[in-house]
Amino acid sequence: MKHYQTILACIDLSTISEAVIIRANELASFYQSQLIILYVNPDIPAFHEPFGEPPSLLLDAKLRQQLEERARQELQTIVQQAGISELVPVEMIHGHPKAVILEYARKHLADLIVMGRHRRPAILDLLGSTANAVLHKAKADVLLVTLSEQETQ
Questions:
Q1: What residue numbers bound the domain in which 108 lies?
Q2: For position 12, which CATH number holds?
């Protein structure tokens, strides 16, 4: 059986985030591994130009700061609800989630990535998802956590 040294729990502040952290923490305890919690705060354009042109402006600084503070509060709440020690590193990084997760895992030598899998229509899987991209491109093992029907209600 493989012994994991560094476990990276990637969350998106959705309802599955607490379950992801709890599962990653259980594995980190079992393997006596380092646990790192990562939330990627996606860059959001303010609006799209007409006729399909790329967005011309990012959110203004004040609104971006408010959204970031709200995300930090939600992240802290989820981590506390999961019962995680204050000694566990919790990172919030801006960027494209797929790219940031893969790069962060590589830089920090994560040998297991734990993340949530959202139930969604199969047609959307053709378009891709963060979990799908990480699953297929990561050098590390990837564990996808799902919620049961009862947990989603």
A1: 6-148
A2: 3.40.50.620
